[in-house]
Design a protein that fits this description.
disordered N terminus
Length: 1062
């Protein structure tokens, strides 16, 4: 598109003098500039929506607003008209070099054009959550029965002798209050959970930053802070995700993946002034973008608004689904027990004992209460609490959990495929050696105060000035805008620090290189090419060359493309010989043995402009211009191993988790790091000194691909892969596609079903294949890692990685540390263990309470535990127990056992042993108290006092009152559950059940709080809680405490009986 500009030659040069918010740089308009005082507020957001989706062109937009192109303030010639894109920048009061003036216009831009976020779905109100909790069938049934019972009793009292009546309405009212408490507890937990998820979302947003130009500075801001007029700096490495709609101002080889919007996987090439949409990702190239639409006015914003307008229903996690099935089975058992109790009470009460028909309501309330106790509605609550608690704790341990289900999945992980750089190493790269032909410069490790640059400059003789300047120029020019000595790409930062130590200023060198001229070209690094290049124009005075190409990358790629080599001592360029190549390779080996990564630098001068800068050599897939290079130097960059990595990997192997390193480094460096980290140990070697590895332990990417793909069709073959992966520990010189192949193959492998193959691996190589499908954790930091991160069961993205990698991951490692992955595994296993502890406790209460209620119903047509008391027991074992046991902290012992088999039942044999043993003991004790306890304790039989008073000539005033006998039964039963809750903290046959009890303040606080409430209920609950007026005496409390505490020696006896743990 083009615009004519018939500006008069007499027009004065334009100037930039921004004044108030509503003005743009003042210009002298042409005779056709209809509105010289146009401001950005005269544009509407809809203008830019149309511009972004290509409904109109920039020229059409300007014409619509009656604007002609303005003269460029940077132009010295007023006759030169700017392009429509430049005119648009001026009218938006922004420039590519300086950005907006944020101090005076940022807020007003947000007011006028909107903010760059979509309003989140409003949080549910507390009352709506209460309504959801009221949908529970058991709660509804209890409320209805309580109301019916209350009405019946009140009506009955009016027609009966009120002198013999008692406040029976109190029990109905107490049931209603219990339901009220349960509903509110459930709603309160859900309400607080909303804020927990909001905090998690905010943490993700705060870590999602973009690089922009604003106030003439390059700064980082969160997505929500972007406004129309901002200049976004993007690249396919560290700023790949586009947060708003914009127009491309400048860029090199920009290709965008728009599949998130269109579904098309083909990369779209973008040219200057073409729109790039929010929600897309830059797969290749880098550049700058003029933001023209934000938030709801972007293409993605419209879609997001539609999505957020509907409630999103989350798919339950695998563990939740598994537990819900278990809860249903237990619920069916409870329903059968409730129906049986109701039918038996009807037959015996009405048919045999000829009781009043009004007792049917009592029978029904008892039956429904049995069902309430049996149904484990606290099970999903325990899962949610455990996941939420664990995710918050993991955040403190540098694991930002994006998907809560990833917490539990990590507990089942059997394989971790990890990167090297930044994960196993510190990612604080330092240039430690320099092979500047013909000499090697490597300062001794003891001279930590002397940098490589200082060591080179202090050497005698020094390299010639010209080669040194060429080295500094090659590094300074051929790096990304976002990289500096202390931030950006770690490798580039190390190289730029070398320039600084060689007394160079990379910013000044970059400016003087003419890199920002339109004729300069950038050829970005890709995992396929393994090199990065810049072509810049040369001053005519330098050798007559018109252009110079600077390139850096993998040494083997650079060396194979070199035809000449520069002698740094003589400043002479000569043909590269085989001897020169061997010397370079020898230095590469020295670097590898010292755990240094080798980066090669080279250059090439062009006397004539090539016909096509981007022509590709079909043989090696590199650019033609990246051939016939002159070798400049080899830099060894050291990235020290993290000190905690060795211990963390040792814990992995102890926990039955295999660790595989996947790196782009060469084989020697990869082996050195893997051996130091403990990934490769003596079990993988024929000999340690010298280090001789067994076959298949280390593979290069190209060899790996040959082994697992069909040579003719190139298709992946699982059978071949299953012969490779058990032995593989290090995959060097790998590509992102290798990561995806590894994640996919491990995930689909059914090698564990081949018993003969598994036995052979154990006998020949000592490799124990896990008895179920592999659960794969994968780390990644690059855009091209996204597919592998999605394919793995758990994807870990580095906090320093690209945004698209973070978007694809389930967990973000805030410290980029491998040891944090082990923390995630420990917390994941702890979630599973916490749910098991809760199940062990709940099922014990279920069996005991339901059995006691059924026996009471059969014998006395009423449960010795009243409906209101059973509701209290239900509250203890559901809400309070889930809070107490779901907040248990992990212990190191969790990493001393293998991962949990997917097909293994959550309730192990040891757990069944504990459940049945404790439930049987509690049933026996409770029934003994029911049928003979009143004799031993010297109190009246509870059934006679509470139900059969008239029939046994008991004083009328005691009719229907709660008895001491049944209060003791209730108190003893609850205390047995409370003390057994401590037993349930242990899943194995461990003797010391109190181990670590003080390390969990939540457990202690909830347990003590429950005990205090139990004392209050028994002593002051009275008729409302079906407890005897005045409570129990000290001696009766002593007996109850003795009975409750007896579960501890019983547990020791149960633990003494040997049984398989599985």
């Amino acid at each position: 598109m083009s615009f004519s500009n018939p500006s008069s030659a007499s027009s004065p040069p334009p100037s930039t003098a921004p004044s108030s918010l509503s003005t743009v740089p003042t210009t002298q308009p042409s005779s056709q500039c209809h509105n010289p005082s146009i401001t950005f507020t005269q544009f509407e957001p809809t203008d830019f929506v149309s511009l972004a989706d290509s409904s109109i062109t920039i020229s059409e937009l300007l014409s619509r607003r009656l604007i002609s192109p303005l003269s460029s303030p940077s132009s010295s010639d007023p006759e030169l008209a700017t392009t429509p894109l430049e005119t648009l920048q001026l009218l938006l009061n922004t420039t590519e070099e300086d950005g907006i003036d944020a101090s005076s216009t940022h807020f007003h831009r947000q007011q006028h054009f909107g903010v760059n976020f979509v309003a989140k779905q409003p949080k549910r109100t507390y009352l709506s959550l209460c309504w959801d909790a009221l949908q529970d069938f058991v709660i509804v049934a209890l409320i209805i029965m309580a109301i019916v019972s209350l009405v019946t009793e009140l009506v009955g009292q009016k027609t009966s002798d009120e002198s013999h009546s008692s406040p029976v309405w109190i029990e109905s009212f107490a049931i209603l209050m219990s339901c009220f408490i349960i509903v509110n507890v459930t709603a309160a937990i859900d309400f607080s959970k909303q804020y927990a998820f909001e905090r998690l979302s905010n943490c993700v947003d705060e870590n999602n930053k973009k690089t922009i130009v604003r106030d003439s500075n390059i700064i980082e801001v969160i997505d929500a802070d972007l406004v129309v007029g901002d200049i976004l700096i993007f690249n396919s490495h560290s700023n790949a995700s586009i947060p708003a709609d914009g127009l491309l101002l400048s860029g090199t080889d920009v290709q965008v993946d728009e599949s998130a919007l269109t579904g098309e996987t083909k990369l779209i090439t973008k040219n200057i002034s073409e729109p790039i949409f929010s929600g897309t990702t830059v797969s290749n190239g880098s550049g700058r973008l003029l933001i023209i639409a934000v938030g709801l006015h972007t293409n993605a914003g419209v879609i997001n608004a539609a999505v957020y307008s509907n409630e999103i229903v989350q798919e339950p996690s695998p563990l939740t689904q598994k537990l819900e099935k278990l809860a249903k089975l237990i619920g069916y058992f409870g329903l059968a027990a409730a129906i049986l109790a109701f039918v038996v009470m009807l037959i015996i009460g009405l048919g045999v004992n000829n009781e009043d028909k009004s007792e049917v309501i009592t029978y029904f309330v008892t039956a429904v209460t049995v069902l309430a106790v049996a149904v484990p509605e606290g099970l999903p609550l325990a899962v949610t609490l455990s996941l939420a608690f664990s995710s918050n704790k993991m955040m403190q341990c540098q694991n930002l959990v994006k998907q809560l289900s990833a917490c539990e999945t990590m507990g089942c992980a059997t394989t971790i495929c990890t990167d090297k750089t930044g994960t196993l190493t510190t990612n604080k790269m330092t240039a430690r050696s320099l092979y500047f032909f013909p000499r090697r410069f490597s300062p001794p490790q003891t001279t930590s105060s002397s940098s490589l640059g200082e060591f080179v400059l202090s050497s005698s003789p020094q390299p010639q000035p010209a080669p040194l300047n060429l080295l500094k120029a090659c590094i300074s020019v051929n790096t990304m805008d976002v990289s500096t000595e202390d931030k950006g790409n770690a490798t580039e930062s190390a190289l730029l620090k070398l320039v600084h130590d060689l007394h160079g200023d990379f910013r000044q060198i970059r400016r003087s290189s003419l890199r920002d001229m339109p004729v300069a070209q950038q050829f970005v690094f890709t995992s396929d090419r393994k090199v990065m290049s810049w072509v810049v124009p040369m001053p005519i005075a330098i050798g007559g060359a018109k252009f110079r190409l600077f390139t850096k990358g993998a040494p083997e790629v650079i060396i194979s493309s070199c035809s000449e080599i520069l002698n740094a001592d003589t400043d002479h360029v000569g043909a590269i010989t085989q001897q020169d190549v061997e010397a370079i390779e020898e230095n590469m080996l020295l670097n590898s043995n010292s755990c240094q990564r080798s980066i090669a630098l080279a250059y090439r001068d062009f006397d004539e402009v090539p016909a096509d800068w981007k022509a590709v050599d079909a043989e090696n897939n590199n650019l033609v211009i990246e051939s016939q290079l002159t070798f400049l130097c080899l830099v060894g960059i050291e990235d020290p191993l993290r000190p905690e990595v060795f211990g963390a990997i040792k814990k992995c192997y102890t926990a039955g988790i295999d660790v595989r390193m996947v790196t782009g480094d060469n084989v020697n460096t990869a082996i050195s790091i893997a051996y130091q980290a403990g990934i490769v140990n003596s079990a993988h070697c024929h000999s340690v000194e010298p280090l001789v590895l067994k076959e298949g332990v280390v593979l290069e990417g190209k060899d790996f691909r040959k082994l697992v793909h069909d040579p003719e069709s190139g298709l992946f073959q699982q059978e071949k892969f299953d012969k490779v992966w058990p032995k593989l520990r290090v995959l060097a010189r790998s590509s992102p596609s290798d990561k995806l192949t590894l994640a996919n193959g491990l995930n689909k492998s059914e090698l564990y079903k081949d018993k003969a193959a598994c036995d052979a691996l154990m006998n020949d190589d000592g490799i124990d294949i896990f008895v179920d499908r592999q659960v794969v954790a994968m780390t990644g930091d690059g855009t091209n890692d996204a597919q592998a991160l999605r394919r793995a069961d758990i994807g870990f993205a580095m906090n320093s990685g690209t945004q698209i990698a973070k978007d694809a991951a389930d967990i973000i490692l805030l410290d980029d540390n491998f040891a944090s992955i082990i923390t995630a595994a420990m917390w994941g296993r702890n979630i599973y263990a916490s749910i098991q502890k809760f199940l062990q406790f709940q099922l014990t209460v279920n069996f005991a309470a339901v059995t006691v209620a059924l026996v009471g119903a059969f014998v006395y047509q009423q449960s010795p535990l009243a409906a209101i008391q059973l509701l209290w027991v239900n509250l203890i074992m559901d809400s309070l127990a889930s809070l107490a046991l779901a907040t248990e902290t992990p212990t190191p012992e969790l990493l001393k056992v293998p991962p949990v088999n997917r097909s293994t039942s959550m309730i192990t044999r040891v757990m069944w042993h504990n459940i049945l043993g404790q439930a049987t003991y509690q049933i026996i004790i409770t029934l003994m108290l029911l049928f003979a306890g009143y004799k031993w304790l010297g109190v009246e039989q509870g059934n006679e006092v509470e139900k059969d008073a008239e029939a046994t000539d008991t004083s009328p005033e005691s009719f229907g009152e709660p008895s001491t006998h049944y209060t003791i039964i209730f108190n003893s039963f609850v205390l047995m559950q409370l003390f057994n809750e401590i037993n349930c903290r242990v899943l194995s046959a461990e003797r010391n059940v109190f181990k670590g009890v003080l390390s969990n303040p939540y457990f202690g606080f909830i347990w003590v709080g429950t005990m205090v409430l139990q004392v209050i209920i028994v002593q002051y609950g009275g008729v409302a809680m079906s407890c005897v007026e005045g409570g129990l005496s000290k001696s009766e409390w002593g007996w109850c405490l003795l009975i409750g505490g007896s579960v501890f020696p019983v547990q020791q006896i149960i633990s003494s009986i040997k049984i398989s743990k599985i």
